[in-house]
Design a protein that fits this description.
Urease, subunit C, domain 1, 3 domains, nine-stranded parallel sheet, alpha/beta
Length: 485
């Protein structure tokens, strides 16, 4: 080897060694970082939540005994047995869930949340009498920003205590409602109600709807837990021109649209007399029916209209408590489910329910259709529970985010205690959830991976202050010499 060749060879060896050392250093650094994030071979999660039973509402793995989930960035990243989750993940917070069931949070598909402040104000009346002679006048007199702020806080407190993690709010002062939801941590579809006659703060449709559109533009994409929407009150309180305006705007801004439809026989007759069509057919004639629309109540659709609702992909929210109390009738839920209509559950407002308790709605949905059909197999427990979780999520077009315990969905989950006497003994966990459990059994509530309630203790709201302010408003209503005139 010549001196020149030897020099080149030494240089080559030096380069190879240097490259090796650099590469080795990178490998060491990478391995070090990997070990830092995966100590002991475990992946890092923010939260691990378990239960003696995990009711997933996911057909691929419906119920997991002694199961758990891992949560990172507000999302479910793993669902399995507790042993496998604990072996694969480490988290800053672990809620083991002994003596509990873990399940998706409840989805209340229809409410007028701040109306909790009118709870019990006017009872045992037909819908039209209740609305026109009592509720509308009371709203005109008492509803303002402070009313909605306190009412929304009271409603959120009640819903969190009962395991509701998502709700639809069709009411007034949506910015106030959105701020309350933002602070308390719940998920909500907020739809300011628009109607053809004067309502709190508005002279009629034009100014109310303009404000609603402005709300949608200001809040869309602002908060991942708050979905702004539009709301047209009903086919008998909103003109055809305004209904068309509403659906056109909903398409333009790509937001949901909610409406009361076919709630009573009186409504059906009224709409037929005005437009020579039933409420459902009237909306179809206007080109209103489509998947972005979810209709509350739907008590009186006929057979062909049920098929039409399925074809158009319209979501339907069943409100059994309110329908029974106002004697509106029995919605044909079994027929709608059979036809493939997306059917969810709601409570309606607490002025007509008189609570925001989804467990009562679940139980009634399972029971009343058995009684009216004289068939005990109608709306079985699994179906009723699905309507309150994944069914409502589907009706609201949110099933890609919530409604089940499944990898990739948001971590909106609840734990219920199974140790109370009314839940003992346990043979079938889904049966217990539908026919025996109630709101007081809810122990822990988590939305987007954030714990809102733990061991029945509220973490994002001040119940004592809410109670004081709610009672103060109620005293003002009571003190009015003729509060409903």
């Amino acid at each position: 080897m010549t001196r020149q060749s030897l020099k080149h060879y030494k240089l080559l060896v030096l380069c190879v060694c240097t490259a090796f050392l650099i590469f080795s250093g990178q490998v060491v650094i990478a391995q070090s970082n990997y070990n830092f994030n995966n100590r002991g071979g475990k992946q890092k999660a923010e939260l691990i939540v378990g239960g003696d039973f995990v009711v997933t509402m996911n057909e691929a793995q419906p119920v997991i005994q002694d199961g758990a989930i891992a949560v990172a960035d507000g999302k479910i990243v793993a669902v399995d047995t507790k042993a496998k989750i604990m072996a694969s993940y480490r988290a800053n917070t672990t809620l083991p869930g002994e003596g509990m069931v873990l399940m998706p949070g409840l989805v209340n598909g229809h409410s007028h949340s701040a109306m909790v402040l009118f709870r019990g104000l006017a009872d045992d009346l037909a819908l039209q009498d209740w609305l026109q002679n009592y509720i509308f006048p009371a709203e005109a007199k008492f509803v303002d920003k402070n009313f909605v702020r306190v009412g929304e806080q009271l409603a959120c407190w009640e819903m969190i205590r009962g395991g509701t993690t998502t709700f639809v709010d069709m009411y007034f002062e949506p910015d106030v409602a959105a701020e309350v939801v933002n602070k308390c941590g719940l998920r909500a579809v907020i739809a300011p109600s628009s109607i053809d006659f004067p309502s709190p703060g508005f002279k009629g449709w034009d100014d109310a709807f303009a404000f609603a559109v402005d709300f949608v533009k200001r809040w869309k994409g602002k908060n991942s837990r708050i979905i702004p929407a539009l709301a047209a009150h009903a086919p008998y309180t909103v003109s055809p021109e305004h209904l068309t305006q509403a659906i056109t705007a909903a398409r333009q801004y790509d937001v949901p649209l909610t409406i009361h439809v076919a709630e009573t026989q009186t409504e059906v007759k009224d709409v037929q007399q005005r437009y020579n069509a039933t409420p459902v057919q009237h909306l179809e004639n206007l080109g209103f029916l489509e998947p972005r629309v979810f209709a509350a109540h739907m008590v009186w659709p006929n057979e062909s209209e049920i098929a039409l609702l399925a074809k158009r992909g319209v979501g339907v929210i069943h409100n059994p408590d309110s329908n029974l109390k106002l004697a509106s009738g029995f919605a044909p839920v079994p027929a709608m489910l059979k036809a493939g209509v997306k059917v969810g559950l709601g409570t309606d407002g607490a002025a007509s329910n008189n609570t925001l308790d989804m467990w009562k709605a679940i139980r009634l949905a399972a029971l009343i259709h058995k009684g009216t059909s004289l068939d005990p197999t109608t709306v079985p427990a699994k179906t009723a529970l699905r309507m309150a979780t994944l069914g409502s999520a589907e009706a609201l077009n949110l099933a890609d985010k919530i409604g089940a315990i499944k990898v990739g969905l948001r971590a909106d989950v609840i734990q219920l205690q199974l140790t109370e006497p009314h839940l003992t003994p346990l043979y079938n966990v889904i049966s217990h959830l539908v026919y025996a459990a109630d709101a007081s059994d809810v122990d822990t509530v988590i939305v987007d991976g954030q714990i809102l309630m733990r061991e029945r203790k509220m973490l994002t709201l001040d119940p004592d202050q809410i109670r004081i302010e709610a009672n103060s408003i109620a005293e003002n209503i009571k003190a009015s010499s003729r509060p409903l005139n």
